């Protein structure tokens, strides 16, 4: 049975402080210095969303700011959920303090 990954799109998210994002021609590489895990982002839209997460009050706003239509938000929500599960992105301190 396949697990369904869920991320709260109405919460604030940010790159984990120990994660570096390196742009590449295909998208980007994410490297977590704490876990030594490497992730590949193969879509420039998700790269833009991840880079801008901390600039938006919630993930949904970051996705919409990237020009994603409402009927495609679930695609990017699944990608963010995968990144959250691997601790590449974490809830932002600002949103959890509010």
Arithmetic mean pLDDT? 91
Total number of beta strands: 5
- β-strand percent reads 15-25%
Q: What is the H-and-E element order?
A: EEEEHHHEH
Shape: globular
Strand order of the largest sheet: 2-3-4
Radius of gyration: 13 Å
Helix-residue proportion: 25-40%
Distance between the amino and carboxyl termini: 37 Å
Biggest sheet overview:
3 strands, antiparallel
Structural class designation: alpha+beta
Ranges with pLDDT <50 over ≥5 residues?
none
Question: How many individual helices?
Answer: 4
How would you describe the overall organization of this protein?
The chain has helices at 44-52, 59-65, 73-85, 93-97, and strands spanning 13-15, 19-24, 27-32, 37-41, 89-91. By secondary structure, it is α+β, with helices and mostly antiparallel strands. The strands form two sheets. The protein has a three-stranded antiparallel β-sheet, covered by helices on one side. It has a two-stranded antiparallel ribbon with strand order 1-5. A hairpin with a 4-residue loop joins strand 3 and strand 4. The longest helix has 13 residues, at 73-85. The chain starts with 12 loop residues before the first strand and ends with a helix.
């Amino acid at each position: 049975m396949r697990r369904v990954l869920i991320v709260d799109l109405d919460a604030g998210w940010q790159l984990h402080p120990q994660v570096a994002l390196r742009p590449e021609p295909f998208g980007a590489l994410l490297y977590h210095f704490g876990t030594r895990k490497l992730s590949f982002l193969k879509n420039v839209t998700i790269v833009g969303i991840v880079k801008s997460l901390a600039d938006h009050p919630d993930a949904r706003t970051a996705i919409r700011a990237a020009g994603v239509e409402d009927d495609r938000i679930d695609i990017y929500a699944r990608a963010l959920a995968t990144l959250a599960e691997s601790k590449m992105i974490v809830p932002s301190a600002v949103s959890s303090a509010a």
